[in-house]
């Protein structure tokens, strides 16, 4: 049973436009959410996080939105740059539970 | 501060063999987690160690085991390798909720 779902395996956008990556979770105990970015041949790197007491967190070009009632979060990248091309993993955690990741979304930003 | 290091970076084994992967966390980090990454399944949690004790375990068979030493370094062992064990194995260390990943060990089982 997948507790964290990233239903889009891939996404392609034009440079300068907005990239929106989506993530759904099922476990209502999750109260902390993270996004990681992964380039080929490298380990994932932390991008941005949000706790359940907030509905938005912004860091430069990256904004994460959390809709607790829908158990949905999204990552917005504005403006998208070719260097943002990577696989993005959504992770969720609650209490002493382990961090659970989605299967990832491969983002391609075309120049 | 040095990042998380994993050795070896690449490994080729045959079915039935066993393998041991090593992870050195960031200095001061006491929690080490292991993940398996495959194209079809994404990042799947294997186990977490904290102060030499396994704190959490994912849904993997008993062929997958691990341990942590007093200096927080961790090893992961897979016995009786199967073709489906071919994957990128990632180690992450943390002091809190944010995890710092190593580059991974690419295991190929033939």
User: How far apart lie the N and C ends of chain A?
Assistant: 38 Å
Q: Please provide the ordered H/E string of secondary-structure elements of chain B.
A: EEEEEEEEEEE
Assembly state of the chains shown: heterodimer
Number of beta-strand segments of chain A:
11
The biggest sheet of chain B amounts to: 7 strands, mixed
How many DSSP helices of chain A? Answer: 0
Output the structural class of chain B: mainly beta
Tell me, what's the shape of chain B? globular
Which sheet architecture does the biggest sheet of chain A show? 6 strands, mixed
Order of helices and strands of chain A: EEEEEEEEEEE
Rounded to the nearest angstrom, the radius of gyration of chain B is 13 Å
Question: How far do the termini of chain B sit from each other?
Answer: 37 Å
Unreliable stretches covering 5 or more consecutive residues of chain B = none
The percentage of residues in β strands of chain B lies in over 45%
What is the averaged pLDDT score of chain A?
93
Question: What does it look like?
Answer:
The complex is a heterodimer of chains A (111) and B (110). Chain A has strands at 4-5, 10-14, 19-25, 32-38, 45-51, 56-59, 62-67, 72-77, 86-93, 100-101, 105-110. With 111 residues, chain A is mainly β. In chain A, the strands form 2 sheets. In chain A, strands 2, 4, 5, 9, 10 and 11 form a 6-stranded mixed beta sheet that branches. A 5-stranded antiparallel beta sheet of chain A has the order 1-3-8-7-6, with no helix packed on it. Chain B is globular and about 35 Å long. By secondary structure, chain B is mainly β. Chain B has strands spanning 5-7, 10-13, 19-24, 31-38, 42-50, 53-57, 64-68, 74-78, 87-94, 99-101, 105-109. The chains are: A mainly beta (111), B mainly beta (110).
């Amino acid at each position: 049973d997948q507790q964290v779902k990233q239903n889009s395996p891939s996404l392609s956008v034009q440079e300068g436009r907005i990239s929106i990556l989506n993530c759904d979770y099922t476990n209502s105990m999750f109260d902390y959410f993270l996004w990681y970015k992964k380039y080929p041949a490298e380990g994932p790197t932390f991008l941005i996080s949000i706790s359940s007491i907030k509905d938005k967190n912004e860091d430069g070009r990256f904004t994460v939105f959390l809709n607790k009632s829908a158990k949905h979060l999204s990552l917005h990248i504005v403006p998208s740059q070719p260097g943002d091309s990577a696989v993005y993993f959504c992770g969720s955690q609650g209490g002493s539970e382990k961090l659970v990741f989605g299967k990832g979304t491969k983002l391609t930003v075309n120049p | 501060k040095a990042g998380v290091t994993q050795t070896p970076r690449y490994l080729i084994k045959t079915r039935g063999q066993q393998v041991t992967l090593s992870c050195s966390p960031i200095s001061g980090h006491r929690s080490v987690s292991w993940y398996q990454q495959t194209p079809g399944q994404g990042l799947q949690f294997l186990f977490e160690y904290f102060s030499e004790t396994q704190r959490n375990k994912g849904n993997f068979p008993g062929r997958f085991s691990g341990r942590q030493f007093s200096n927080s370094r961790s090893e992961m062992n897979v016995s009786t390798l199967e073709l489906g064990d071919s994957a990128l194995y990632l180690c992450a260390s943390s002091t809190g909720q944010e995890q710092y990943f190593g580059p991974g060990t690419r295991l190929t089982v033939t």
